[in-house]
Amino acid sequence: METLRFTDQFRNFVKHSIRLTDEAQAAAILLLLEGTADWKRLKNLFETANKQYWEERALFQESVAAAAEASEKNESNSPAPLPHLIVVANTPEELQGAIEEGFDCIDLEMKDFPTNERLTQALLEAVSDELIPTRSSVVTLYGGFGADEIDSISLTHLDEHFDRLTIHDIRNLQTSVPLDVFKAVVDLAIEIGRDGREGKPVGTLFIIGDSKKVMEQSVPAGFDPVRGYSREERDIRDAKVREGIKEIAQLDGAFIISSKGIVEASCRNIVSTAKNITLSKGLGTRHWAAAAISKSCKAVSVSVSQSGGTVRIFQNGEIVLRIEPTKRRPIVLHEFDEN
Hints:
Elements: H1 8-24, E1 28-32, H2 39-64, H3 70-76, E2 85-89, E3 104-107, H4 115-128, E4 137-142, E5 152-157, H5 158-161, H6 179-195, E6 204-208, H7 211-216, E7 218-220, H8 239-248, E8 254-257, E9 263-270, H9 285-296, E10 300-304, E11 311-315, E12 318-323
Parallel strand pairs: 1-2, 1-4, 2-3, 6-8
Antiparallel strand pairs: 4-5, 6-10, 7-9, 8-9, 10-11, 11-12
């Protein structure tokens, strides 16, 4: 396990990150690590850099505003609190002790992935965990060439970075589907898209929420394998149920899932009209059905492309999230609190 080195270069990067956070009004400083760190020393380094920056800023302001009232100068020169610090590593073990020192933590489990993909996932999870607002800027420190050394700094505007990943605020999904149910379905869809079944690609469709109306706008495509089972035996959050769903996914038709995570039906053909729906060329009938039902019902559709395994989430007739399972691990959403 690599440990972050506190070089002169790293100290300069920390100082510049404090300045950039202030000038860009960034929501947080994100430290993307390839291992662990001396968390107490790291916290002290940021505190010292923050204090120095605001002292230098105060001296500069005094030099250009010497004629200002003393009370006004004191107000404008008051030090700001330490910026919001988020550390990202590959495993929970690498982050041990970080929370105690006041860092928010994200473990990615993406050790062998390129830096840009790790950064994208870290930002997505930070938004989903409500650590940063969706429409904000983030300063990131990371190592592009060495596992134990920080050699790069960047400023990311989330609206630009998520241009292809999020069309709407991720949290809008919570208005119709609890996040624990949404996470279970999306993770299952990603597994199906990535692994298929018995070495063969599998495409399928999940429709979550507003299940009564969705049932009214769909018809049986054939025999329904989930019919007759108890609610407990149809709960999508149960690992055994998800394994069974993988087998059924090889059959034609969609899965209808209630907002409580119960698989109400499988092998259903959607009959909603696709009028006023616009999708990219190359998307097949499954995607049109997913868009149409999400437009006519208060439901979220999750489609798995048979050709490439791409997972697309539809809401209100539009694609709001796209995930490539071969390149990105399942998105991790914060635990849903029913209270």
